[in-house]
Design goal:
Layout lengths: L1 H24 L3 E2 L2 E2 L5 E2 L2 E2 L11 E5 L2 E5 L25 H13 L5 H15 L2 H7 L1
Length: about 140
């Protein structure tokens, strides 16, 4: 049994070392953002193709991000408020369906539910099924 477990251990250690080396080689991810003109810029993994291999830190300003190697220039992306891409509800989105159903059901008159409830109360209070058929 001992002979079979040795190569397995070596394989596990080599795999672990490769994962650690790969993690160290990859840098921070610069999240997508809206630039100063409001245009959406896609995020990217540091270093990019044009950067030096040690440019593994996301640097710059919230409106202009780039990869660098200086920890002093590191951008605190958590403090940026321009990194959320606005998503407009499409025709099939849940928000649109929920809001549309309410708008279509009520129309633009907020007193409609009150009027319906008042009418139903009158019908139920009358106690007669004739009142129900006469009003419907």
């Amino acid at each position: 049994m001992r002979r079979g477990s040795f190569p397995m251990s070596v394989t596990a250690i080599v795999t672990l070392l490769l994962v650690i080396i790969d993690v160290k080689a990859s840098g921070e991810y610069c999240h997508g953002w809206h630039d100063s003109e409001g245009a959406w810029k896609e995020g990217f993994q540091c270093p990019e193709k044009i950067d030096a291999q040690d440019a593994i830190i996301c640097c710059g300003k919230c409106e202009l991000r780039y990869c660098c190697s200086s920890t002093e220039a590191r951008l605190d992306q958590g403090s940026c408020d321009n990194d959320r891409q606005a998503v407009e509800p499409g025709p099939g989105s849940k928000e649109d369906k929920d809001n549309g159903a309410v708008r279509e059901g009520l129309g633009s008159d907020p007193s409609v539910p009150t009027g319906i409830k008042f009418g139903l109360d009158r019908i139920l209070d009358s106690g007669s099924s004739e009142a129900l058929t006469a009003r419907s």
